[in-house]
Amino acid sequence: MFQKKTLSLNVPKLFELPSDDASAPVRTVEVVVAPKLPALFVADLHLTEKRPQTTAAFFDFLSGPARQAGSVFILGDLFEYWVGDDDAGSAFNRNICEALSMAVAAGTAIYFMPGNRDLLAGKGFAYASGVQLLADIASVRFGVRTLLLSHGDALCTDDHDYQAFRLQARNHEWQAGFLAQPLEARRSFIEKIRDQSETAKIGKRAEVMDVNADAVTNLLRSHGYPTLIHGHTHRPARHAYLIDGHRCERYVLSDWHDHAVWLAFDGIEFCPCSGIQFSS
Q1: What pLDDT, in 10s, does the model give residues 118-138?
Q2: What CA–CA distance (Å, rounded) separates 87 from 181?
Q3: Which of the residues in the chain have pLDDT under 70?
């Protein structure tokens, strides 16, 4: 039986785990070789029925820039939350999946890396949307150029409370027990966790919720000094590093709080792009 960890988020114990083994984890892509260019990178859209303008902007992105691109990489938190693939049939989620599927059918390869808000998106979501699931961490190879992709939350190692919760939420037995609950119970649980998380952020210093410099350095070193792209922190920027004599870059993707934002890569250079500003 799963033993709930003690967290400052005070996660309620919603269930008892089934005695049988949890289902095998979803197989995800860890290395993408020679995807079509240009490649577009987005993260942290936090799509929800409560922010229809953000959803409309995403539909515009999929029907416009995404179809002019060769590939699109969504690096987590596409949804405000995802309670399980059996919720893919809800009207809102179905519309998102259909829009993704249409862009894929039009010729754009779309890759999706689950974030902390939608980490339960798996085979069912991939089947409904046509996306290819990415592991966190994933390498994308364009000839001799390698890009390293991550959602980014694993790098926020100074936030010990969050990392404890992250470890628990990614435990396959924990997930199996959660997914065994009715949809409404799961939604209620996620809403409670989200409220607790927002409250917890108020008392934390901003730098605690950002990536840890040593964690970034170690990641880049262990993967051969690539360019790193991630989201999660909502602090869009380009960072330059000199690590062991190697020049590296880190691009932080923007959230879609008030306008659509993506990072374009043509195989040589990166270009920040944005759509029409909206009020979320």
Answers
A1: 999 999 999 999 999 999 999
A2: 12
A3: 1-27, 200-201, 203, 279-280
> How many alpha carbons fall within 13 Å on the CB side of residue 126?
16
**Per residue in 243-272, pLDDT tens?**
999 999 999 999 999 899 999 999 999 999
Rounded CA-CA distance 265/268 in Å is: 7
How many Å apart are CA 81 and CA 117, to the nearest integer? 5
The answer to whether 85 and 124 have CB atoms below 8 angstroms apart is yes
The whole-angstrom separation of Cα 225 and Cα 233 is 22
Structure tokens at 92: 């809102």
Nearest one of 58, 56, 49 to 87, comparing CA atoms: 49
266: number of CA atoms within 13 Å, CB side? 7
Separation CA 195–CA 174 (nearest Å): 20
For residue 163, the model assigns a pLDDT of 95
Tokens of 36: 């079509």
pTM: 0.89
Instruction: Give the residue among 87, 75, 85 at the shortest CA–CA distance from 152.
Output: 75
**Helices 52-63 & 91-105 angle (0-180, nearest 10):** 20
Tell me the C-alpha to C-alpha distance, in Å, between residue 163 and each of 8, 9, 183. Answer: 11, 11, 26
Q: Does domain 29-277 have CATH number 3.60.21.10?
A: yes
